[in-house]
Design a protein that fits this description.
The protein is α/β, with parallel strands linked by helices and 283 residues long. Helix 8 packs antiparallel against helix 9. Among the domains are: 79 residues, Periplasmic binding protein-like II (D-Maltodextrin-Binding Protein, domain 2, 3-Layer(aba) Sandwich); 83 residues, ACT domain (Alpha-Beta Plaits), CATH 3.30.70.260. 39% of the residues are buried. The structure holds prephenic acid (PRE). Prephenic acid binds next to helix 1, strand 3, helix 4 and helix 6.
Length: 283
């Protein structure tokens, strides 16, 4: 049976994503994203599931940076799940909004609810945790004035009251999760494929006028549709960036080989981070 690691503890959105995508497998929780990626890298587990991007807050930079700079593992699937953030309080809490003095959650979850916090809990102290699940756990042992931001599973798992539902600031909230592994054959997801994607890492040769334009032209004239382009620091000095480009089609030996050759002729370094199916889950 394959082993599947995820950003835990129980009650995280990543666990929801894992449960929706994998029927079988032995599931292992990790406290941080790097620990989960390391465990796949060193063979402790077969598959890792880590958050990649949220519709409101954008890229989970820790995941991208760790996969690019520390442990390079291919992405073999993407799971997209709807995200609903709720305000969860201790079972003993009987007060009202003014009595909540601390909010605990993952930075991405807090960011998805900034407007709510600004309007209704402007004086609450914010505490960033490694996941929404660990925030819920903390609140379950804490005093009655603490609240966590997280999902319904966390409320159930830690015996918290679902005190205010759907506090995320924009309704169409989803998060993409990357499924990483060393062996593609172990990744068996029980769901129809909704799309196919290829993620590429492109490093420009040096800073010159029109460099990015030339890179994009290689995709444009081949009519290859991009769904994302993002720059991240190379961590080698100010102004040095690489680009992550998501192309809305699977890798093939004609178009992608052509793009790669054209970009390499311009002096770019081109690497494929993964070519994978996308599964959109309805929870
Ligand atoms: O903390 C969790 O529950 C997670 O699974 C992490 C995470 C994230 O990193 O974006 C996942 C989905 C939500 O967007 C909020 C938090």
């Amino acid at each position: 049976m394959e082993s599947i690691g995820y950003l835990g503890p129980k009650g995280t959105f990543t666990k929801l994503a894992v449960d929706s995508a994998f029927n079988g497998g032995e599931k292992f929780s990790f406290e941080t994203i790097p620990e989960c990626i390391d465990a796949v890298g060193n063979g402790q587990i077969d598959i890792g599931v880590v958050p990649l991007e949220n519709a409101i807050e954008g890229t989970v930079q820790l995941t991208v940076d760790y996969l690019v700079h520390q442990v390079r593992l291919p992405i073999f699937a993407e799971i997209v799940v709807p995200i609903q953030q709720h305000l969860l309080v201790n079972s003993e809490f009987t007060g009202d909004m003014d009595d909540i003095t601390e909010i605990h959650s993952h930075s991405h979850a807090i960011a998805q609810c900034h407007q709510f916090i600004h309007s209704f809990l402007p004086d609450a102290k914010l505490n960033f945790t490694t996941s929404t699940g660990s925030a819920a756990e903390l609140v379950s042992h804490g005093n009655a004035n603490m609240a966590a931001i997280g999902n319904k599973l966390a409320a159930q798992e830690y015996g918290l009251q679902l005190w205010k539902e759907n506090i995320h600031d924009y309704p169409n909230n989803h998060t993409r999760f990357a499924v990483i592994a060393k062996d593609e054959n172990l990744v068996r997801i029980n769901h129809e494929v909704d799309a196919e994607k290829t993620s590429m890492l492109i490093t420009l040769p040096s800073d010159y006028a029109g460099a990015l334009y030339q890179v994009l032209a290689a995709f444009a004239w081949r009519k290859m549709n991009l769904s994302k382009i993002e720059s991240r620091p190379m961590k080698t000095g100010l102004g040095n960036y690489f680009f992550i480009v998501d192309v809305n089609q699977p890798y093939d030996d004609v178009l992608f080989t052509g793009v790669k050759a054209e970009l390499e002729a311009l002096g770019c370094k081109v690497q494929v981070l993964g070519t994978y199916p996308v599964y959109e889950m309805n929870l």
